[in-house]
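Task: sequence in, structure out. Protein: Disease resistance R13L4/SHOC-2-like LRR domain-containing protein.
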Amino acid sequence: MNKTILHWSYLNFKDVPMDLFLYEDLEEVYLKENYISVIPKWLLNITTLKFIHLAGNNLSELPADIYMLENLEFLDVSNNELTELPKTLGLLLRLQQLNVSGNQLTELPMELNTLRNLEHLNIAKNQFRRLPLQLSECVRLNELNVSDNEALLHLPERIANLPMLQSLAADRCALVYLPAALSKFMNQVRIFHNTCVNYIPMIYERFYQNFFDNRQKVTPISISKKGLFWVRELESQKRLLLPVGTRNVFRVPSPENRVTLYDDCLHALQTLNRHLPVYENAALHRLLPEPYMSAHINNGPIARCTTTNCSRCLYTTYYFMVVKRRGSASKQLFTCNFCTHNCALQWLSSNAKKYYQLDWKVSDDDDDDDEDVVGDHDDNNGDND
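Result:
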């Protein structure tokens, strides 16, 4: 039996036409660029619907009963006037594509973590300040767009490191640093138009091109230093904010390997966390030997070893380098993270002709202010490579 598809876009409808009920086996309906302000309850009874396109209307809310569309696989309500999403979206278990871009949303429901079939999520052009860590449980997500959320300061590493993520866009946000843990299957990244970012983790090198540089004037952001880890690159005196969760970083070369037992424990617990997230198990949370351990597990690895044939997850301590390209006119800084001293020396041996090291020091011992500024000393972002 052939499915029914209705193309009723650009027809100046003010309401969803009840004529929809006249069509049997209706699976797809296009109602783009009309003046629809409400999704009627009767529409939720058409459970054969798999595809609804309502972009460019006047919707101010989605009905809580939207979960009744149990076969829905595609929902586009972009460019409307939504200020929040119902928690019941998490009950659309067949949903594969969700587009809520171009609205006035400030939060995503944590209940979206149940959307295990979700593959494409577009939340661009909203007002998000943060993303719920539970989004990392959408294990089939392969395309994520968070661009043009001008107040978004941080992209959780656990989300950037989703196992099947292939495409990530975070242009024109307010990111203070780029996540140094990316999915191994990533093949497209647009994340560099963030004016406070003043270094690029080496894991992005294969995506890096000149037109990704910040071409606009740097906009420094003052943030609290408490709980954050900074180093100062001594050639340009740039202060670099390292990933949240960093406890200590070691120079290369160092006299000995400094693998910590704490990080080894996190590696072991991470396997358990894949099957039962710690934040859902209060008893396990209480049994952990250190109160911050559950946070480190839930947040996931903060970086991956830069050595390609290793890529080991890094959690709180690691070997760290700041490098520049040899023979390049660009003043762009790249950073490298390694799990052991041996991995660092191996990478140096393979890349010594292309990169050279810059000296740095931990900077929390020479700054007494409670507030710090990201984006300072960064007037060279427009240089060509």
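The two ends are 57 Å apart (CA to CA).
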